[in-house]
Amino acid sequence: MYNPSGKVRNPSVGAHTISDSEFNAPRKSTSTIHFAHVVCNSDMGNLFPFFTSRYKTFRVIEQLHVVVANLRPVCRHLSDECIFTCCLLLYSRNEVCMKRTPLYNEHVTRNARMIEIGDYEVPARYVDARKERAATREKAAVYDSSHGAKFQVTGPNAEKDIDKLITQNVSTIVVGTCSQALMCNEQGGIIDHITVYHPSESSVLIVGNTVNHDYDDAWIRAHLSSDSVFSDVSEEMVKIDLQGPHTPGIMEKLFQQSLNGFRYRGVRSMSFENGTCIVARHGITGEIGFEMFCDNPLGVQLWRRCIQQGIEPAGVLALDGLRLEMGFPAFGQEMNSFQNAGELGMEWLIDPGATFIGAELVHDPAQFRAQLVAVVVEPKRQIRTGDRIINTYGVDIGTLSSVIKSPYVDGTIALGYVTATAGSMKAGTNIVVRSGSVDVRAKIVETPFYKNGTFDKPIEQFLGRGE
After folding, report:
1. Which domain-ending residue is among 92, 115, 147?
2. What is the pTM of this model?
């Protein structure tokens, strides 16, 4: 067991002791496989119950089960419990080397405040997240989204294989388009919230959340036919999001090409400098915008050109606020592998005719245990994520999952879940949010909270702005 001296000893054999230098090894020299071999003669099983009780977070445990499966062939002499506990030790001590996107130095030189998301260090904000949100709504802002999981599936059966994995009908995501979707498990729980891009025949690009990278990788691979070729391109491609009403004019300057007729959810291949980018008119901010994929060196050039154009860089805090103003759910807040996808109540994410894994449970309202609601509280009152939702009879019916104060809405806005037995939660229903010992009046509203989004407007209305 672990003792204050910083060593793990085998009480029965005592064949090997993990030294302080091994246990506290620098991040850059520590790996799960190395750590597992170091403790191969140690009794790690007695730590297993401790860590599994400490880390009951479903996503940690689920992801580590995948890691154990991947490590089993190279650690044959170790039990699953031993490997699992090694992984948990590394997780608990944050020993895993953090990754950096190819744009990391660009962020650091601009004094961005960096935070950890999944395995990556990403910019949380540069100066003020509120100003970055305002820039996106009113002009333009540029985001580094390269940390997301990116997978490419090619081959004659690529579309057919992906069709059974996502909540959309792939036949509707024709070549030159993209669409958001969910991947579900057999119980209808949400594996990840993804975007599927169809840039060319027999080729599909899937982008998911970085925290789910390993799980998504294993899940997709396990469900592909032998004719499909799977590639993890997460570290080979930069993804830059340029969002805001001024972006069409800026994009024409950057790429020296006309964007006339570029429709919402369209995907094009566009030349930049001496390379090519996959460009999608898409995003989660609610404003007209573009997602650009290119190889790493070209991505750095593209980012620098955006900054040279005077575009304000923005971080993930601004992006999270913008998605919430649109009423979009986020994985880890409104979505998890135990949450039935149908409980989101978002038909645009789930095709009622799609026959994906878990579809029977997702399409059956009788299986729903909760329903997602949008909430606005009275102005100048404070609420927090995790506050309870109380109905007019004083009954606790749910909890808030995301909260933010928006300058575009008269009051603080939130998403949350109420129990399926709470009855009708139509727009206009009065509720109370219990924040600590204080009850705050609120009501259920329709989404989006922010009503003036430009994301699906004809692009011709915006060409010429920002020049």
Report:
1. 92
2. 0.80
